[in-house]
């Protein structure tokens, strides 16, 4: 029952499957879990029927028909851990039941004549981490480090520490780091602390991450800890600072990010070019061009850092950051000066840099200049991309020169490049601004000719362009259904004898003025909230839609008045 309250659904971007990303039930995970759980039961069945697991497995693999089609028997190449790994590789979220089933089949590896080594148990522990259960993963690590266990390695704990940090359990992560050296015999190093910092940064708990970095730096002053670890104490590296600098820059706190760079200088840690690019990008995102240019001058002329001895100098990414900043404002002259500086410094511009220059000309409403960038790109022997050609087409569509835009499209085909959805969306928008319905129809036909379907974003682009021409929404959908009836978004009308009647696309279009009036009335009622239709009126509205489909020539305004009166 919908009580009108909003529900917030958290989506985990680590999983490609939409259901797994929302934490919902997924059939692929359920099927894999059932398959893994049945492997041990089938193995026991094999032992009861034949008494020789290996011979049965080989026999079933060689002749599945003689063994009853393999039903109830486990294959000799059964890989339960591989099944779980395949789920994660395909973008699914294994559940706790999956990992419980995996734990039950780990002893099966030894029963088949092999040994479950450290890598196998690490995979099981990391699988629990991926499921959001680091406590169970730590228990597995304890079993590995116990007497008679397989032992732990340097790859066992980082994933557990990262999961603790990501779920806000910093105290548990600190405790595990202490237990590593005292109970598991593993000295924490850069990999473990970087996993700690990475989890906190992904959680956006940057204050706690700063505290972790401070404690890490102070370990070198703890003589007791040094003696316990045999004098081996790790210290942060440029990558460690880079995690925090990038996180502070994404949050927009450039002062904290700049302080970390100064702290690196105090700790005598050599920076990398990527750190300066992160800081420059952060300053440009805030519009602080002065601070960004100050860092750039330091890169070129060695200010507080000796860039020449460090081997650091601006690269293509550095110049592209400034190009994108000036291109967003349509400052073509500033972009050309940057290109000239790149040529003097012998920095080769890539296709992304040329695409940013095209963007500058497009923002300046200079499509001829954008087309000249294509000539320069070919002269520089840089392979063009679809995005560059699409940007040039957008520049011509912005000023209404659709014929020139079609010439660029032909040039794009000559370069053996296939236009994408954004390319045709630019054409549709340009023809829509000119109120050229025939041009919009040609764009829709071009989409179909290039293997694109008129649904989703492609259909919405055509619909918006037709709306610019003053067409009603009903006429637009009827037009698109005629162009591509296979992807019609309307269901066909069926007669009583079961034969398919004409679809809504082939039905006669009602008078446009009446449909516009009826549709506008519905939109106004929805916006102003004059009277909302309750759930009890939904069947009546559905019946009105059926009547509307069966007698399409009836004025739409009369149908809407009938539904509104029934709802009242």
Automatic annotation (TrEMBL):
Coiled coil: none annotated. PPR repeats lie at residues 117-151, 189-223, 237-271, 272-306, 315-349, 350-384, 385-419. Residues 237-414 form the PROP1-like PPR domain. InterPro entries: PPR_rpt, PROP1-like_PPR_dom, TPR-like_helical_dom_sf. Gene3D superfamilies: Tetratricopeptide repeat domain (1.25.40.10). It comes from the Eukaryota. Residues 57-77, 491-532 are annotated as: Disordered. Keywords: Repeat. NCBIfam families: PPR. This is PROP1-like PPR domain-containing protein.
